[in-house]
Amino acid sequence: MQFRQLRYFVKIVEAGSFSKAALVVHVAQPALSQQIAELEQRLGVSLLQRSARGVRPTAAGTALYKEATGLLNQLDQLPLLIRPPDDEAEGLVNLGIAISLAPKIIGGLIEECRSTLPKVNVRLSDGDSLSLASKITSTALDLAIIYEDGLAAQVIRTPLFRQRLYVISATPLLEGKETITLRELAEFPLVLPAPGNGRRDLIDRTFANAKLSHRVVQEADSLSSEMWAVRNEVGCTILPVGDMSHFGPQAFAKPILIEPSMHLTCSIVRSGNLPLTGAAEALHGCLLKFMAHRTRQADMRGLEWISPG
Question: Exposed e or buried b for every residue in 176-185, given b needs 16+ CB within 10 A?
């Protein structure tokens, strides 16, 4: 039995429906239903009664709800229970940051952590969001800030903001225009990650839904190789980045917004099966405060802040 399944079950009972609970825990409804089905199969009992009005717990579900709420509360309180109340957060935290976001936040984040959490040692890793999420589930990372498209059930997330995607090119694609349509974009060669990457899957799906074909001329296995190809005019790419000034003032053309818009959600994610350490819990709070301030700066374009619930 996995702790995250218990968390999802408790939220479903409290919300009274799968759809409402999916919004609360920020997990796609089909994935949420699958997690509960696995929990019911493991326990060998039906936990929820489904009807047109929603769901309510069975007798077994009611018993599990009472036990699970107490168990999860104890689990979440463990770091506080074993640490003196006046003790300052201390320890090592492994933090991953999506590589396309890292240049914008690492400098300020390190300074913020040193200032507010002087005894917390933050070990930083960057990478693509898919690999960082995998490291969260394997507990190689304690926390990660990643971009997501589909909301899978393997992690617990705190959504931060929705980020629009831009076309990035070495030279201007459409002189004088700040937006580009999908139909116009379909005429240009693209450099993208391979299928299976969340950003690539979103792009593929968006074009397919619009009944358009896009021209992928190069697939890249890392952001650095992707940007190298774009810089050398192999093609353009699509990124959740509205400002490229950190690459240098003349490195790339001004990013162009896509219409209709494509979005990725940026979230802080952690394991659903283990509680955060005291140091990781303190860093989580620091990240929320820092990102709320940082994302309102002028160079963070095309995003809509999501107030964490």
Answer: eeeebebebb
For 25-175, list the strands marked E by DSSP. 48-51, 54-57, 91-98, 120-127, 143-148, 155-164, 166-168
Q: What pTM did the predictor assign? A: 0.74
**Residues 30, 10: Cα–Cα separation, whole Å:** 17
Please list, in sequence order, all residues whose beta carbon lies within 8 angstroms of the beta carbon of residue 297, skipping any fewer than 6 positions away: none
Report the distance separating Cα 133 and Cα 143, nearest Å: 9
* Distance between CA atoms of residues 197 and 129, nearest Å: 8
Task: Kindly report, residue by residue over 162-183, the tens digit of the pLDDT.
Answer: 999 999 999 999 888 889 999 9
User: Which candidate, 9, 11, 3, 2, places its Cα nearest to that of 309?
Assistant: 11
Segment 104-136, tens digit of pLDDT: 899 899 999 999 999 999 999 998 888 898 899
